[in-house]
Amino acid sequence: MLRSRVVAVAIATAVVATACGGSSESAPTTPASTNAEATAAPSSEAIRTFVGADGVESEIADTSRIITLSGDLTEAVFELGLGDSLVARDVTTSYPPEALELPIVGVGRFLSAEGVLKENPTLVLGDTQTSPPEAIEQIRSAGVPVVIFDVPLDFETLYAKAEAIGEALGVPEEGRRLAETLETVVSDVMEAATPLDPVPGVAFLYSRGPDVMLLFGAGMTTQPLIEVAGGRDVGTESGVEGTVRVTPEAIVAAAPEVIVTTSEGLEALGGIDGLLAVPGFAETPAGQARRILDYPEGDFLTFGPRIGTILENFITDLRAIVGQS
After folding, report:
1. By C-alpha distance, which of 239, 228, 233 is closest to 260?
2. Would you tell me which of 104, 201, 243, 294 could form a disulfide with 214, CB atoms 3.0–4.6 Å apart?
3. CB neighbours (10 Å) of residue 45?
4. Are 11 and 32 in contact (CB under 8 A)?
5. Could you tell me how far CA 240 lies from the centroid of its own chain?
6. Rounded CA separation 26/108 (Å)
7. How confident is the model at residue 25 (pLDDT cuts 50, 70, 90)?
8. Distance CA 129, CA 322 (A)
9. pTM of the complete model
10. Nearest to residue 68, comparing CAs of 28, 18, 127?
11. For the ranges 57-66, 112-121, 205-214, 269-278, which has the lowest average pLDDT?
12. Tens digit of pLDDT for each residue in 151-204?
């Protein structure tokens, strides 16, 4: 079966966050994390340089107190065996469970330098969506390296990012092993997935309640997930680049047959009935058939180490909800 094939080699299971129509149980520890745990963290005396995705060269001398500013980076730190060095994280972290006990320094996209610095980090990991730049520079000015990584928008970039994180943390072999594991898992999932016919139109809706409702499109991590699962990203087809605020006219015109959203957002709206009460949604094919899938924000929006299990769950759920299991 698909699930048994993936779990045998899968990375451990978890933005942009539990599924009404899908599962998100944790997968076993992966070969990458098993090997990494046997490797001691790099010596604080072993200074190395690393050039981040923002072009800034950082000198990394100490990984004893790490702060992560996105959920996938948190998961990668644990996968690479340095979880004990993590002292704080941003709000998008939802996995692993032990990371949820750590202090929250805010939201990486709305960074507060003061919130980060009060945790006395020796290394801060962020990505190209970390902002504002002034906060990053304030942290660097305090003598703390801030290493910036790309936000993967395809699987090849995801594999490269795993290797890059390993290099920055001083465990390059574990980074390469994680990248290889990810590639194997994703390949197995994609090969086992049967095509959908007809191909359903899928919309990803990001919501934090009626006042925050965004339709995702091209250039977002949700697009490759939808397409690999066998759907059409109606946001992208509608010409959306990044995100746009949802209007009744726009969602009706997009005509999604399935709507995917975050569990947190669906709860804030009052469940499926609350979502369908928002003007426009009940008129869509998805709304008329109540074809709504929800996942934790840290699951579906985190293009990171658990992508294999998350993708597998989504493929299964999408087929079930459109009657093509």
Report:
1. 233
2. 243
3. 7
4. yes
5. 20
6. 25
7. very low
8. 34
9. 0.79
10. 127
11. 205-214
12. 888 899 999 999 999 999 999 999 999 999 999 999 999 999 899 999 999 999
- Contact by Cβ (8 Å): 276, 262: no
Q: What is the DSSP letter of 24?
A: -
Tell me how far apart the alpha carbons of residues 283 and 262 are, in angstroms, rounded to a whole number: 21
Q: Which of 221, 233, 85, 53 is nearest to 149 (CA)?
A: 53
The full DSSP string for 74-139 is HHHHHHTT-GGGEEEE-TT---SGGGGGSPB--BTTB--HHHHHTT--SEEEEETT---HHHHHHH
Q: Looking at residue 3, what is its pLDDT?
A: 35
Positive/negative CA dihedral, 229, 233, 236, 237? positive
For the chain, where are the alpha helices, taking DSSP H only? Answer: 2-7, 31-37, 71-79, 113-117, 133-141, 155-168, 172-192, 222-228, 234-237, 248-254, 263-269, 271-276, 285-289, 297-300, 307-321
What are the tokens at 55? 């072009």
Residue 142 and residue 5: Cα distance in Å, rounded?
Answer: 48
Instruction: Please give the structure tokens belonging to residue 42.
Output: 């790099």
Q: For residues 82 and 169, what is the distance between their CA atoms, to the nearest angstrom? A: 8
